[in-house]
Amino acid sequence: MATVLQAPPANRPASAAPAATPDAGHEEVSDVPVVVLDPQEVDEWLESVDDILHRHGPGALSQLLMRLYSRAQAQGVPIIPSLTTPYSNTIPVEAEPEYPGDPIIERKLRSVIRWNAMAMVVRAYQGSNVGGHIATFASSATLVETGFNHFFHARTAEHTGDMVYFQGHSSPGMYSRAFVEGRLSEETLVKFRRELPRGTGLSSYPHPWLMPDFWQFPTVSMGLGPICSIYQARFLRYMLHRNLLDTSKSRVWAFLGDGEIDEPESLGAISMASREKLDNLTWVVNCNLQRLDGPVRGNGKIIQELEGIFRGAGWNVIKLVWGSDWDPLFEADESGILVKTLGEVVDGQFQKYSVETGEYIRNDFFGRHPDLLKLVEHLTDDQITHLRRGGHDPIKVYAALKAATDHKGAPTVVLAHTVKGFGLGPEAEGKNTAHQTKGLNEKSLLLVRDRFSLPLTDEQAKAAIFYRPPADSPEMKYLHEHRQKLGGYLPARVPTTERLVIPAVAHLVEEAATSTRERSTTTVLSETIKSLIRDKNLGKRVVPIIPDEAQTFGMEALFSLFGIYSSKGQLYTPVDAGTSKAYKESLTGQILMEGIDEAGAMSSFVAAGTAYANVGYTMIPFYIYYSMFGFQRVGDLIWLAGDSRCKGFLCGGTSGRTTLNGEGLQHEDGHSQLMAGTVPNLIAYDPAYGYELCVIIHDGLRRMYAEGEDVFYYLSVYNENYVMPTMPAGVEEGIIKGMYPLDPTIPAKKRSARPQLLGSGPLLNEAIRAQKILAEKFGVEADVWSVTSYNELKRDAQSISRWNRLHPDQKPKVSYIEQALAGLKGPFISTSDNVQLVAEQIRPYVPGAYTVCGTDGFGRSETREALRRHFEIDAESVAYTTLVTLSKEGRFDARKLPQALKELNLDSEKVDPATA
What we know:
disordered N terminus, elongated, six-stranded parallel β-sheet, five-stranded parallel β-sheet, 916 residues, alpha/beta
């Protein structure tokens, strides 16, 4: 039988009273018998709680309560501690620290920054209709500015710096502050969202690619900022524990929207953050109760919902719901009716209050109970309208952020209640249309000017001019003094200038690619990583990242050699202890073993690959994953990596639609090379031989880490074993450029009239076999080329073609593919384990008939031989396609084609693989 207290004792503070009814959205059980306890007995229990807290502190009281819960459960009482608390502030008034700044000066600065942010968007909309967003920063200004004034530390020689993931839609606020600081000019602000010519103007959102000296983290693809911030915080610990860099002072801040939390990536990794005890991580969720088109939880309470989720995941939760104006009301509420009623009102109604009059709020909210009306009888309607929510009160915000930075043992989330479009007047404040509002009329501009007490004339306000206080004003002195105390200005991106010494390519080939045994390119990759980790110049910087597929890739030997990073070390004896491939976890382990979590692993890749800019220390990540679960699953994070100017190697293991036999449709990848081509600074290769892979990795190391290029690499690697030949002399350039003839000794004149077979990855072997079939069965001599990158061939040719088009009065340039194929008539037949569009990219630059054999269609489980016949990419299919093309040119008797089909055992009536 459940027992409840009807009302809190009169001498207990209201904040200690339990919620009398469940949160909105939960069913209320009305048929449970209720036993009312003696208030005096309850008071004695509460006094005991106070005594334990006073004498032994919160930790001891927590232990006692857990013992009581355990005892109750052992006695069969089905009681579970609630994951939510009353709809009030977590930090009581008496626990708030003294505010360390000047609230009046800070308000003036905040008002100036609010104005400029708004003016920037309004003027951009008026001048060009490029738009912008006003409402997000308006709601989060106090949250962010309190951080700027008191918490966010820049990178210095003694401090690796805080990392702040700003809400993407709040970017005008960051630009406005940088303008007030003198880091951006008025001319630049006028060009908000006007970024041409290159290097001018301001990007719409945080984009390091477009503003490489300003932004660090792309955040506007919602959900990616949250997950990246978690793995960034963990990577700081990884560097600290491996004694690479003292990152102990750095804190990761992420400012998020409550609507953004619905993205799966936002909450998908929060348990990892608590499991790793990432107390260097603070999330501030701007709970303005509104997403792009309406309420986040119109019929519920998003703050309560998030509190339960985060508390259940092990986070420290700080609710910042009400501003200081509410404190006297809570103090006067002896019965607890105010907290109870606030907990019952759904968010959609709170949003309604943000656009209504004080009279409406008095009647609709406080009018629900006589005691509530009595609480506000001394307040005017105007005063009721201006009862602030917690996220707009710097005193409360500072207390919350200070508590977050002081907390140890777990990450912290601050749930801050705000109003979207706060301060922007009736056109935008609290409206469903606030997110889309880009312009304000003259009346609204004057209202904003007056609300924030800005020294602007009516004409200046109507023109939305930018304003910066005089350089010698108290406000400007205060602003610069506080940033200097915190090491400088943010956001700022400061890449290291260090350049690494790269081992010779011959050394890599000898170490990793030379063998008399049959091997896969995945094995060669593993050996290459092993060689690089042992290199005296690069070794400690290499970060192998694997999402629980090391044994699939044959890389488990790395475990015992280099260790798997664990913040807890290894608290158990692994089942394979004593073997050469033992599962070895260590505080100083080098491998990041991310489990079945491609999004998390990709976030680690970004953290490692941008360390050169974010903490000034270069790291070399190799992320090896199931290729099908790369671009297809985390393509948005890969695009973010490009925007972030990330460096490193993405390695699509078990690549190919036919090479990975036995797994089937969901696993067989034939399109990652195509998708890789959509990322402008991603260099994609599809090597066939071990020496090709080593040459490509060496060139990537040179470009990224010796010469400082802002590119990263995608490598298709396969699990098919075959003999890896010795590297021929002089092929390095062709490997890097994208193609080379397997037998470069054949004279060009002899090659000119012969079919040219192009092969990539393991299918190069099918091209070689097709060459033999053509010669032995049909007397046709052909040449074979290894194509390592159709993407690079296309990009080079496309760039040259553009240059020639724009320089008609100059001698035309010649692309690499046109040089390589000069004088050849073909025909040209391509085969690979990719969809046809990968190889189709070079069609405009091929000097003869060109036919592509690819793997269009869904994969399925079968043997490699059967799959390759199904997709018509095997040697027999390539040979027959060559004969057909020759027959069209009158170079092979078309009447012999039916016999060739039979001789090659090809079924002309089989299903089309593209639709099978």
